[in-house]
């Protein structure tokens, strides 16, 4: 019985070690590898003035089951750029996208990304 408990303990320890080491900074997060770029993608910002948290969702995913969500990297650095437009206004966004480290925890997070915003403009077509 004691050997069985030791084996179970060893398995749990190794599992925790691999789970906690899953997120490598060079592969995910704001300092991670760029997986694709947004070039004038239409969508909406969501931001909180109090917490300075910001995210972006593209307009195409607003009406679909699969909705990509982009957490804004370093929101303090681009705060004035993203808050110059009200959240209900559709904007065009340019930036570099990396995988969110949460993707390595579970397949349920496969739609999460982080976005380093380079520029933002009001979408002239959808804001007449």
Task: Provide a compact summary of the structure.
The chain has 128 residues and is of the alpha+beta class. Helices cover 22% and strands 34% of the residues.
Folded structure, characterized:
The protein has a single domain (23-122), classed as Beta Barrel (OB fold (Dihydrolipoamide Acetyltransferase, E2P)), CATH 2.40.50. 22% of the residues lie in helices and 34% in strands. It has helices spanning 2-20, 75-83; strands at residues 36-48, 53-58, 69-72, 91-99, 112-122. It has a five-stranded mixed beta barrel with strand order 1-2-3-5-4. The longest helix has 19 residues, at 2-20. The radius of gyration is 19 Å and the shape is globular.
Number of strands: 5
Q: In one word, what is the shape?
A: globular
Derived structural class: alpha+beta
Biggest sheet strand line-up: 1-2-3-5-4
Task: Return residue spans where pLDDT drops below 50 for at least 5 consecutive residues.
Answer: 16-25
Residue share in β-strands: 25-35%
Mean pLDDT: 81
CATH architecture: Beta Barrel
How much helical structure, as a percent, in the residues? 10-25%
Q: What key attributes describe this structure?
A:
128 residues; alpha+beta; 5 strands; globular
Please render the helix and strand layout as text.
Blueprint: H1 2-20, E1 36-48, E2 53-58, E3 69-72, H2 75-83, E4 91-99, E5 112-122
Parallel strand pairs: 3-5
Antiparallel strand pairs: 1-2, 1-4, 2-3, 4-5
């Amino acid at each position: 019985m004691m050997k069985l408990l030791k084996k179970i303990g060893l398995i749990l320890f190794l599992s925790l070690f691999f789970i906690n080491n899953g997120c490598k900074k060079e592969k995910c997060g704001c300092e991670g590898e760029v997986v694709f770029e947004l070039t004038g993608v239409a969508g909406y910002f969501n931001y909180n003035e109090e917490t300075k948290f910001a995210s972006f969702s593209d307009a195409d995913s607003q009406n679909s089951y699969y909705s990509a969500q982009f957490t804004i990297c370093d929101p303090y650095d681009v705060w004035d750029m993203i808050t110059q437009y009200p959240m209900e206004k559709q904007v065009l966004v340019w930036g570099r996208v990396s995988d969110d480290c949460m993707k390595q925890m579970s397949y349920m997070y496969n739609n999460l990304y982080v976005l380093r915003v380079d520029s933002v403009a009001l979408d002239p077509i959808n804001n007449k």
